Amino acid sequence: MKLEVPETKRLLHTMTTPIRWGDMDAMGHVNNTVYLRYMETARIQLMDENGFSINSAGEGFVIANIFCNFIRQLEYPGQVIIKSYVGAVGRSSFDMYHELLRADNSNTLYANGGETMVWIDFPKQKSVPLPERLRDWLKGA
C-alpha cells in the first residue's frame, strides 16, 4: 500500500544536501533509512531556522508516525533537494510532507514521504496545544 501525499499542502522550506559515499548500501544506491535521515535533516533545519527548536526541558515536537515512498534510486555522487510542506494542522499536531529530488534532475521525483508531528510538554510527557506563534506560522498567517 502506497501512502499518498495530499494535494493540499503549503511549501515551507527547501534545502540541498550532498549524497555521501557512506549513504549507499551494498546494492550501490542510497540506503532506504537515509531517505528518512534526509527528511529529518530538512525538518530540524526548518524548525531551528524558524525558532521552534526542541527544548527537552520544556516543549517541542515528537514524531507520531512517518512514511516514505521510494520512487527512484538515489545514487552517489550528487545532491538531494528536499522540499518540505505543511498539511493539516490540528490542536496539538500537524502533518509535514517532503519531496526528494536530485539537483541535476529537479523535475523528477525520487521519493516522497511525511510525518505527523505532535507538540508535547517533555517533563509531563503529554501533548499540549501548539503554541499560537507556531500555529500562525504553519497556517501562513
Termini gap: 35 Å
| Mean pLDDT across every amino acid position | 94
Q: How many distinct helices?
A: 2
CATH topology: Thiol Ester Dehydrase, Chain A
Cα Rg? 16 Å
How would you explain this protein's 3D organization?
The structure is a single chain. The protein has 141 residues and is of the alpha+beta class. The protein is 18% helix and 43% strand. It has 2 helices and 6 strands. The protein has helices spanning 32-49, 132-138; strands spanning 10-18, 59-70, 79-89, 93-102, 105-121, 126-127. Strands 1, 2, 3, 4, 5 and 6 form a 6-stranded antiparallel beta sheet that branches. The longest helix has 18 residues, at 32-49. The chain is globular, with a radius of gyration of 16 Å. The model has no long low-confidence stretch (mean pLDDT 94).
